[in-house]
Write a structure and sequence with these properties.
With 222 residues, this protein is α/β, with parallel strands linked by helices. The chain is built from 11 helices and 5 strands; from the N terminus they run ααβαβαααβαβααβαα. A 5-stranded parallel beta sheet has the order 2-3-1-4-5, with helices on both faces. Helix 4 crosses helix 6. The longest helix is centred in the middle third of the chain and has 17 residues. Bound molecules: shikimate-3-phosphate. The site of shikimate-3-phosphate (S3P) has 10 residues, from loops.
Length: 222
């Protein structure tokens, strides 16, 4: 696996002031990010309830590039069956095959912001495609934040268990080694969405434009 780990060597500080950086060459940070992306996309990874769709939609609008939700695209590809119905009628392995195909297709159409389902990165082929065709951002949320957000709705088939809190902790344990391979990490917590979007923009700019200046991993910022 050739994903970059989060910890990066500290780079010398960019000497431009914040204001100068924002208006350098007359381009906004958002325009600089999109120019640096080329045809790569920004892919949001992380657990259910970490805010991938909510943040992704706002991030796409902010960058003026399309937002695509992989779960929604899978539902469209199944004539409107919901994710829960696809799990119930066809089983999880079938859903995972469709998910891998949909993400591969979405990655061909960059640049865009793509929200992936929480389990998508468990497939090596998907991880490799994301590494090759995107900049990945892990929205890292704690189990209690996730539980509070997902318990209002019954649309997560994997959480229809006797003890959803334990299921969430188990999935976090199994998946975090893979989420951690993302290029960037942002702590998803109960603050206004725009603050998380701002942190994504800053981290993307540091990574793509300011010479890969270290973006603190979510665990370092908590
Ligand atoms: C899943 C997450 C869901 C959806 C499916 C499976 C998972 O997407 O893909 O229910 O395995 O974590 P969200 O992460 O958008 O909720």
């Amino acid at each position: 696996m050739t994903y970059q780990p989060f910890a990066r060597p500290t780079e010398p500080e960019n000497e431009m002031t914040e204001t100068a950086a924002r208006h350098h060459d007359g381009m906004t940070h958002e325009a600089e990010i999109v120019a640096a992306l080329g045809n790569r996309s920004v892919v949001l990874v992380g657990m259910m309830g970490s805010g991938k769709s909510t943040i992704g939609r706002r991030l796409g609008a902010r960058l003026h590039i399309p937002f695509l939700d992989a779960d929604h695209e899978i539902e469209v590809a199944h004539a409107g069956l919901t994710v829960s119905e696809i799990f119930a009628q066809h089983g999880e392995p079938y859903f995972r095959d469709g998910e891998a195909r949909v993400i591969a297709r979405l990655l061909e159409g960059g640049p865009s912001v793509i929200a992936t389902g929480g389990g998508a990165i468990m497939r090596e082929e998907t991880r490799n495609r994301i590494r090759d065709k995107a900049v990945s951002v892990w929205l890292q949320a704690d189990g209690d934040v996730i539980l509070k957000r997902v318990k209002r709705r019954a649309d997560r088939p994997l959480l229809q268990t006797a003890d959803p809190a334990a299921t969430i902790e188990r999935l976090i344990g199994e998946r975090s080694p893979f989420y951690r391979l993302a290029d960037l990490a942002i702590a998803s917590r109960d603050v206004p969405h725009e603050k998380i979007v701002e942190e994504c923009v800053d981290a993307l700019h540091a990574h793509l434009v300011s010479g890969g200046a270290a973006s603190p991993s979510a665990s370092e910022t908590q």
